Amino acid sequence: MTGSVPYTGGTLLQALGQAFTCAPQVYGPDVPTELAAILTKAMMRSFEERYASAEEMRLALEHFVEHRDVNALLDESWRRLSLLAEDHASDPSAPRDDSALRRVENECRFGFEEALTRWPENERAQRGYHELARLSVKRALRAGDWRAAAAALERLPSPDAELRAQVTAVRARAADAARERVILEDLGSNEDMLRYADVRSKFAAFVGLGWSAWFFAVGAMLRHGAFELTHTHLLVNAVLTCVTYAVVMWSVRGTLLATQIDRRALWLMAVCFAGAGILWRFAALLDISPLHTVALSSSVYVFFFIATATVIDRRLAWVALALSPLALVPYLDVQHVFEWQGVYVAVSAVALSLTWRRDARMARERGTSAPFPS
């Protein structure tokens, strides 16, 4: 195997001394590891440590010849394992080619698995496979990949409590980070004025103009004497308005109720409707005339715009300032209170719709607009 005798010396006595000591030989890289182990065992100093017979050594050599391809594969796999271990022991901040290292790790794992498939009882292959698994856990933990660490942990022959605790800790930190990321993304989405801006714009126009049309219709019927306005009419109107608004809110729950900004706007409008109904009820108890009662609700509408500009969209502040004087006109012309409030609501709806329509156009340009539900 080496091309030379195992014991050499300047004299016969020196050579016999080396043979008596019988120190283990050091073989070069051209001698396979498995074969070197056979030669070392055959030349042990103690008879008990050697092969019991030439036949036993012959079987060992025969076994080596049958699996010499596996041994070569194991040698290469162990070489790759050493490279991975050196990299893991190096400075984590040092530049490295992660893709190349992953390829080395995969090749190393394949080598050990192939060796075990072809030679299941090979202890060297088993030891290398398990050492690779342990190293893979540590490498994955350093990268923060708890899933890869957990998968490598399952390849160990016996549970490792310390490594399992580390995997559990990294997994918990990753879960916390994921929850925080979802919260931040949700907050960003909830506060995005461009999200569902198209739906918001159409909703404001639909509700506002529909409400304005109702004001003008009631005013026209009163002027033509179709009925005489009473507090009962106002109470019924308040109830029907709240019910209708609830139905409309339910129909758009999948879009407008999905964001914090839109929820604020919708609930402010609901408070506006409910507030007007409560105000009308107290006016009835105080025996204020129905027309003056309707005029009082103008203050509720002003409150809606001020609140909307304060907590939702500051761009509406100028609308609140511009419409505040208009809200006072019904007090001066009570006979046309419904018409004046119809004008107020119509102008408000147009202002809201145009403001949010601009957002919808910007959203389409950015490709972030949500489709209007059918």
Q: Top keywords for this entry?
A:
374 residues; mainly alpha; 3 domains; 15 helices; rod-shaped
Oligomer: single chain
Q: Give average pLDDT, whole number.
A: 82
Indicate the proportion of strand residues: under 5%
Number of domains: 3
Number of helices: 15
Overall structural class, as computed from helix and strand content, comes to mainly alpha
**Unreliable segments (pLDDT under 50, ≥5 consecutive)?**
187-191, 368-374
Protein architecture, described:
This protein is mostly helical. The protein has helices at residues 12-21, 33-42, 54-66, 68-89, 98-118, 123-143, 146-153, 161-190, 197-223, 231-251, 260-285, 290-296, 298-311, 317-332, 337-366. The protein folds into 3 domains: 12-66, no CATH class; 68-187; 193-366. The protein is 74% helix and 0% strand. Helix 2 runs antiparallel to helix 3, helix 4 runs parallel beside helix 6 and helix 10 (231-251) packs antiparallel against helix 11. The longest helix has 30 residues, at 161-190. Mean pLDDT is 82; it is low at 187-191 and 368-374.
Concise synopsis of the structure shown:
The radius of gyration is 43 Å and the shape is rod-shaped. The protein has helices spanning 12-21, 33-42, 54-66, 68-89, 98-118, 123-143, 146-153, 161-190, 197-223, 231-251, 260-285, 290-296, 298-311, 317-332, 337-366. The protein is built from 15 helices and no strands.
Helices and strands in order:
Elements: H1 12-21, H2 33-42, H3 54-66, H4 68-89, H5 98-118, H6 123-143, H7 146-153, H8 161-190, H9 197-223, H10 231-251, H11 260-285, H12 290-296, H13 298-311, H14 317-332, H15 337-366
Helix pairs in contact: 2-3, 4-5, 4-6, 5-6, 6-7, 6-8, 7-8, 9-15, 10-11, 11-12, 11-13, 13-14, 14-15
